[in-house]
Amino acid sequence: MRVRCPVQGAFEFYESLPLRPKRPERLFFGLFPDCETSLSVRERAERIVSENHLEGSLVEPARLHISLHHLGDYKHLRDKFIYAAALAAKAVSMHPFEITCRSIMSFEGAPSADGRMRRRPLVLLGESAPLLALHECLGAAMRKNGLRAAGHFVPHMTLFYGRKPVASQATDPIRFVVDEFALVHSKLWLTEYDVIERWPLRG
C-alpha cells in the first residue's frame, strides 16, 4: 500500500514576501512522491543547503512535487476549468514508471514584486522517458479540451528558495515510482495545496 505525506495548508512566511497577486488561484497537474521519498528528498535538501551555506526557505515534504502542466492563474477558480482538466486527465492511459533524480541546480527565478533580489528555486532534476511521454500525452488531451498546455518541459522538483545561485552538480540518485498524477489547486503565496482529484496510471 502506498503511503503519502498529507497535503494540507502549510503557511511559510518568507522573508520579503511578495504582495498577493491579482490572480492568486493556480491550477496545475503534478506528481507527488510517496512519503518515504519526500522525507528522503527533504533530508537531501537540508544537507545541500548546509554544504552550500544557503539562506532561504526549504519546501515542506508534503509539498514536494514535479509539475506536469500549469493550467493557469485565476482571480477566482471556476468549475469549467476543473471539468475540462478532468476530461483531459481521464484520456491518459499509461503504466506506472520510475523517475530518477541525480542532479541539482538553481533556476534563475523571477524578481520579487518590490524589485529586490530574485528568489531562486533550487531544484532536483528528474530523468524519465515515460515522464516526458506523460507530459506530451496529457498536454495533447488538454488542448483537445480547450486548455493551454506548454510544449517545453524540464522535469524538476523544487527543494528550496534562496538568493544565492547553485551551479549544476551531481547528487546521489533518488528513485521513486509514479503510479498516479493529480490536479492541484494552489493558493499562491499562502503555499496552500488542495488536491482536487487523482488519476491512477493503470495502462
Automatic annotation (TrEMBL):
Keyword Nucleotidyltransferase in record: no
Entry superkingdom: Bacteria
Residues annotated as signal peptide: none
Name of the protein described by the UniProt record: 2'-5' RNA ligase
Coiled coil: none
Naturally occurring in which organism (per UniProt): Phyllobacterium phragmitis
InterPro entries: Cyclic_Pdiesterase, RNA_CPDase
Any one GO molecular-function label of the UniProt entry: ligase activity
